[in-house]
């Protein structure tokens, strides 16, 4: 697949603060890539260097193979969508969208055709003669998207564009942006700190931490096959147990877990996960089930239930192993599942195939 954007060893510092460590990244044409991470992780700095709004201290940026590291913003064929919409309040919606086309001196007939088409795509053809102040926040964001994409820039950069919206509207706008992406086949780089947003929208996620890329891959890759404790904990709930290797086999290894219990996990050849006592096991809460007294599982443990919370379709259980290690697991509320109440001691189990071994120890297990 053709590379739309190539980033090689780009870095940026502000005095003694390294905002972005040496970072390399390839983005294929038409991909929806999300830069995800906590505040200060470097994702916005990376986005600003791509936009030409911040000049890197080193490395190179190529767009469609053309060296663009220090090219001015207007020469990069990049569109940007910000959290505050940045619409012109004195212009009608039609004129807001037409503005970048007029700047490019397009013929009036072509401007009219493109503006009307993009208004149809964002499903707002009826607001063409209104002003931004007459639209809701969600409508303004859709118009901001329309204005950014109407001239079909090579790449669209979005910096937390939904951060100012309430949850319901944010969920709706996620669908709008995905539909727009599928319609226009534009390459999109999207910045957010919202894990659910990244998981639901992205072709790939570039998870950033401490100024560098922690892991990059599909949402499934990062959720089910995290390469670090940071990735495992940042994307979704995760049970993290400190373990030590006890026995190695062809397909599965055996580890000693909290309280001396044995845990089986798929064999790994990752050199970071062998020859060290600093290892952890990760199990997602939804992979754990309650076991009957006569029921067996590849991995099993006794848990004392502290609390349970029904959250719509699932019920979350919070408990602890005999040595006090926290355990969280979920059960479908709608299914006829066995339930447990506070103070109960129960047996839980999970498949060896859903057990992930990671290097290091999470906070609290140092």
From TrEMBL:
Residues 257-276 are annotated as: Disordered. GO terms for molecular function: ATP binding; ATP hydrolysis activity; transmembrane transporter activity. Residues 5-235 form the ABC transporter domain. SMART domains: AAA (SM00382). Pfam families: ABC_tran, TOBE_2. Keywords: ATP-binding, Nucleotide-binding, Transport. One of its GO terms (cellular component) is ATP-binding cassette (ABC) transporter complex. Residues 267-276 have a biased composition (Basic and acidic residues). GO terms for biological process: putrescine transport. InterPro entries: AAA+_ATPase (IPR003593), ABC_SmlMolc_Importer (IPR050093), ABC_transporter-like_ATP-bd (IPR003439), ABC_transporter-like_CS (IPR017871), Mo/tungstate-bd_C_term_dom (IPR008995), P-loop_NTPase (IPR027417), Transp-assoc_OB_typ2 (IPR013611). PANTHER family: SPERMIDINE/PUTRESCINE IMPORT ATP-BINDING PROTEIN POTA, SPERMIDINE_PUTRESCINE IMPORT ATP-BINDING PROTEIN POTA. This is Polyamine-transporting ATPase. It comes from Agaricicola taiwanensis.
């Amino acid at each position: 697949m053709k590379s739309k954007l190539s980033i090689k060893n780009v870095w940026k510092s502000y005095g003694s603060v390294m905002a972005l460590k040496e970072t390399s990244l390839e983005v294929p044409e038409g991909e929806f890539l999300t830069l995800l991470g906590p505040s200060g992780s470097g994702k916005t700095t990376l986005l600003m260097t791509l936009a030409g709004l911040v000049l890197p201290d080193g490395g190179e940026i190529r767009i469609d193979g053309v060296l663009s590291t220090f090219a001015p913003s207007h020469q990069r064929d990049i569109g940007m969508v910000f959290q505050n919409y940045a619409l012109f309040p004195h212009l009608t919606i039609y004129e807001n969208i037409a503005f970048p086309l007029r700047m490019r001196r397009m013929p009036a007939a072509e401007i009219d055709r493109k503006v009307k088409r993009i208004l149809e795509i964002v499903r707002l053809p009826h607001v063409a003669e209104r002003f931004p102040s007459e639209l809701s926040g969600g409508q303004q964001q859709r118009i901001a998207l329309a204005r950014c994409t109407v001239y079909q820039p090579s790449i669209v950069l979005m910096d937390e564009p939904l951060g100012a919206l309430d949850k319901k509207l944010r969920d709706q706008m996620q669908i709008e942006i995905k539909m727009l992406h599928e319609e226009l086949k534009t390459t999109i780089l999207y910045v957010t700190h919202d894990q659910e947003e990244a998981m639901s929208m992205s072709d790939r996620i570039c998870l950033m931490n401490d100024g560098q890329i922690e892991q990059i891959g599909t949402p499934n890759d990062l959720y089910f096959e995290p390469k670090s404790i940071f990735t495992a904990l940042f994307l979704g709930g995760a049970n993290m147990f400190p373990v030590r290797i006890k026995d190695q086999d062809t397909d599965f290894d055996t580890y000693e877990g909290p309280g001396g219990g044995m845990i089986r996990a798929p064999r790994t050849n990752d050199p970071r996960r062998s020859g060290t006592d600093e290892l952890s096991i990760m199990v997602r809460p939804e992979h754990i089930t309650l076991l009957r007294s006569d029921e067996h599982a590849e991995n099993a443990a006794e848990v004392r239930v502290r609390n349970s919370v029904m959250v719509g379709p699932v019920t979350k259980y919070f408990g602890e192993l005999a040595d006090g290690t926290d355990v969280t697991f979920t059960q479908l509320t709608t299914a006829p599942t066995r339930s447990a109440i506070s103070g109960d001691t129960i047996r839980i189990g999970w498949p060896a195939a859903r057990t992930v071994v990671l290097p290091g120890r999470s906070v609290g297990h140092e």
